[in-house]
Design brief:
The N and C termini lie far apart (about 50 Å). The chain is α/β, with parallel strands linked by helices and about 350 residues long. It has a single domain, classed as TIM Barrel (Alpha-Beta Barrel), CATH 3.20.20. Keywords: Carbohydrate metabolism, Cytoplasm, Lyase, Schiff base. It catalyses: aceneuramate = aldehydo-N-acetyl-D-mannosamine + pyruvate. Belongs to the DapA family. NanA subfamily.
Length: about 350
């Protein structure tokens, strides 16, 4: 139980994309290059098979093989220290199977969304559902994945943590992908009975509000934008921790401008992940197209995305060689000097 008491996500934790070929098959071989790309940025912790990873568009076997591949090329190579796996699915038994597999594979934590087709009418139903999934991997730290814009399940996470802490011994925190900062602040004030520091590990998932979440006591970000703009998002954390709010706001605004471009093109591509994958390719890490019902942008759409990014100065924000940010663990980002960083960019 010591790992459950002490395990912690912190700093920038990319929610990783799932590499795919042009025919929609998983490109497992690309994961090696992707893990190297992230390691070169300074990434030490990753989140697999979530929204960014298109987890609900994958088969069980694909999700398992993705986990096994990341463990091999990420953890066993020493590039990635901690791997968190989303095991949520449309039925509890598949989630339990994925949780058991994750534990055997050697991941460091698991997470799940709530039931999202037959939506629970009471909070205790969600707690019971999560309890049964967590029990499938009782020695693995467990996170609740709160993303109501995708699941349609609106629940107060402060209340969930209070109730779930009595039923789920492996509960360590939440991936909070909601803009309800009132609820988030309440979560930061709770006492966690099974944690060494008595605090729930709270990772924010709406990158465009990260600065505010950190001021309220969040521990970092599990989101997609660190894949695309690591230096910018790292400076949001660093400058906020230093109390340099004017400069932190400038970096946060850069994230918001990028997210607005994602929101501009995402709907016409079937989902925001499609736009994000296109942007990631422009900064040097091509993970291929998304899976249906999303689609890759046409050549014309790709040029438009690139033009919009150029218009906001995106390719000039993080264009310096890897220095401090790339060499420091994700957990120490807040204490490092604000330094530019970007791998090779496309113009």
């Amino acid at each position: 139980m010591s790992k459950i008491r002490d395990f912690k996500l912190e700093g920038l934790v990319p929610a990783v994309f799932t590499p795919m070929t042009t025919d929609g098959a998983i490109d497992y071989d690309k994961i090696d290059a992707y893990s190297r790309y992230l390691s070169d940025l300074g990434v030490k912790q990753v989140f697999l098979n979530g929204t960014t990873g298109e987890g609900f568009s994958l088969t069980l076997d694909e999700r398992k093989k993705i986990v096994e591949t990341w463990v091999r090329v990420g953890k066993e190579s020493g590039r990635i220290r901690d791997i968190v796996v989303h095991v949520g699915s449309l039925n509890m038994h598949d989630s339990q199977e994925l949780a058991k597999h994750a534990a055997v594979a050697g991941v460091d934590a698991i997470a799940t969304v709530p039931p999202l087709f037959f939506k629970p009418s009471k909070l205790e139903y969600i707690v019971e559902y999560c309890k049964k999934i967590a029990e499938a991997a009782p020695n693995v730290p467990f996170y609740y994945y709160h993303i109501p814009t995708m699941t349609g399940v609106e629940v107060n996470i402060e209340d969930f943590l209070v109730m779930a802490s009595k039923e789920i011994p492996s509960l360590v925190g939440a991936k909070f992908s909601s803009k309800d900062l009132v609820d988030f602040l309440g979560c930061t004030q709770l006492t966690a009975p099974n944690r060494s520091d008595s605090k729930y590990n709270l990772m924010f998932g709406c990158d465009e509000q990260l600065m505010a979440a950190m001021v309220m006591g969040g521990h970092g970000s599990v989101g997609s934008t660190p894949n695309l703009m690591w230096g910018t998002m790292a400076r949001v954390l660093q400058l906020t921790a230093q109390g340099n709010f004017p400069e932190a706001r400038k970096e946060q605004l850069r994230c918001q401008k990028t997210v607005r471009i994602m929101l501009k093109y995402g709907p016409q591509l079937g989902g925001n992940v499609a736009a994000l994958k296109a942007i990631l390719a422009l900064v040097g890490m091509d993970t291929g197209p998304p899976r249906a019902p999303m689609r890759a942008p046409s050549a014309e759409e790709a040029r438009a995305i690139k033009a919009d990014l150029n218009a906001i100065g995106f390719f000039n924000w993080d264009n310096q060689p890897a220095t401090n940010l790339a060499s420091q663990p994700a957990t120490n980002l807040a204490s490092q000097p604000a330094t530019n960083h970007r791998r090779k960019t496309a113009r």
